[in-house]
Amino acid sequence: MLFNKNLNLSNGAGKEFLSLIEKRNALIHYNATYEAFEFDNIKINGLTDIALFKSLSTDDAMQALETSKNFIEAWITLQDLEEKHIVAATQHWVGAYAM
């Protein structure tokens, strides 16, 4: 609760932000597995599946920034400010990130 108002986390910016948190937690709390690969007379031990990391792209990073900005803007909007003040306050919070 902020400004005596609740931000809906079940849709919109709130839901997107919770999804981003889940992705972040999967990356930060990654548990490596140690697998072995065998081919003919060659055996390699200690391999791990990095598909989660390999699947990341520049677009994922930009989407994370946009999702975070939208979430911050949603909180600021709860203050019932004029649109120009919402934009200015959001820019203040996100810093140099281009809006």
- Ends: how far apart? 26 Å
Task: Write the H/E string, N to C.
Answer: HEEHHH
Largest β sheet strand count, sense and barrel closure: 2 strands, antiparallel
Number of helices: 4
Counting structural domains, the number is 1
Question: Helix- and strand-based class?
Answer: mainly alpha
Write down the overall mean pLDDT.
Answer: 89
Helix content: 40-55%
Question: Strands of the largest sheet, in order across it?
Answer: 1-2
Based on CA inertia axes, which overall geometry fits?
elongated
Uncertain segments: none
Strand content: 5-15%
E-strand count: 2
Rg (CA only)? 20 Å
Can you walk through the features of this model?
54% of the residues lie in helices and 11% in strands. With 99 residues, it is mainly alpha-helical. It has a two-stranded antiparallel sheet with strand order 1-2. Helix 1 (12-28) packs across helix 3. The longest helix has 20 residues, at 58-77. The mean pLDDT is 89.
Short summary of the structure?
This protein is 54% helix and 11% strand.
Characteristics:
99 residues, mainly alpha
List strands and helices in order, with pairings.
Elements: H1 12-28, E1 35-39, E2 42-47, H2 51-54, H3 58-77, H4 83-94
Antiparallel strand pairs: 1-2
Helix pairs in contact: 1-3, 3-4
